[in-house]
């Protein structure tokens, strides 16, 4: 078996441009985090200078700020509001074109054009979210061809986290801060050195075209130490030991009323979540009424319309919708897919305007002093 020093290579930070150029030469559209309007978002990049060099993010419940650190750190920003989800589960996806004719109508699918996209800067929590999306959309029985077409061309350059945010709790979810799988290349930034490891044949192919040298045991050890410190510094955690049943038993807990009194049903938590997959479909006819487009759009279980089924809204109140979201995320998702729907990225905490924090809500709901009635709210 190969040792860590045989599978890890050093790429000087100043040579990162060679990686971008190599990916471009292999036909990838290179996408990375960029600073725009006070946050970090994914954009097509060509130069290392397009990345948020020297920037760091500060995240707290309901608060996000970028600050210049004055350093040459390339990957100092942990993440912004976007995960990897938009690259595979498009926010708006044309599904069918419908053409009307004299004797009826015809339909033709509009599968996305094949495109090779290389994303640089994904974190371990994003990879965990992508793995959950894969389980949902690439299931053999109900395989989604639109998702599959986008997923096939995705090349992921992940970054191991060496700093944590106030809202991170991936360590307790066992999804980070180190990326263990799901990447083509993974990078750990240690001062002015990039420790690079391939995780796929495509990654090894890209790495073979670069001039990196073998990593020393000392550098590998220092990278591991920084990742461990990052995990130890996380101030939030989620205890999953009693899930899912304890959350089902808390169906009538008064804490739901407390959270509902603060929740604005703004949908931010579901829009930034790496795993939420609620969607709706819409028909868009043209003025001639001869053509119509059938499209899939992101939706949220926090909207009133999402709970409307056959003439009745089954989740008419914010309390109903918040309870359904949290119970699905942390309980019935386990029954459906064998895993929690939360990866500990903390985005829902940061981007909630009123700072509702599920790492506070869950312990309150599982309060030993409450005796539930055993009802469940399964999706």
Backbone CA Rg: 22 Å
> How many alpha or pi helices?
14
Strand content: 15-25%
Shape verdict: globular
Number of strands: 16
Number of domains: 2
The low-pLDDT segments are 374-379
Could you spell the SSE succession in H and E letters?
Answer: HEHEEEEHEEEHHEHEEHEHHHHEEEEHHH
Largest sheet at a glance? 8 strands, mixed
| C-alpha termini separation | 44 Å
* SSE class: alpha+beta
Helix content: 25-40%
Strand order of the largest sheet: 3-2-8-9-10-11-1-12
Describe what this molecule looks like in 3D:
The chain has 379 residues and is α+β, with helices and mostly antiparallel strands. The protein has helices at residues 4-7, 16-25, 85-88, 124-137, 145-152, 170-173, 201-208, 217-232, 245-249, 255-262, 268-272, 318-337, 347-350, 358-365, and strands at 8-12, 29-36, 39-44, 55-60, 63-68, 92-101, 104-109, 117-122, 154-159, 185-190, 193-198, 213-214, 279-285, 291-298, 308-309, 312-313. An 8-stranded mixed beta sheet has the order 3-2-8-9-10-11-1-12, with helices on both faces. A hairpin with a 2-residue loop joins strand 10 (185-190) and strand 11. Helix 10 (255-262) crosses helix 12 (318-337).
How would you summarize what this structure contains?
The protein is 31% helix and 24% strand.
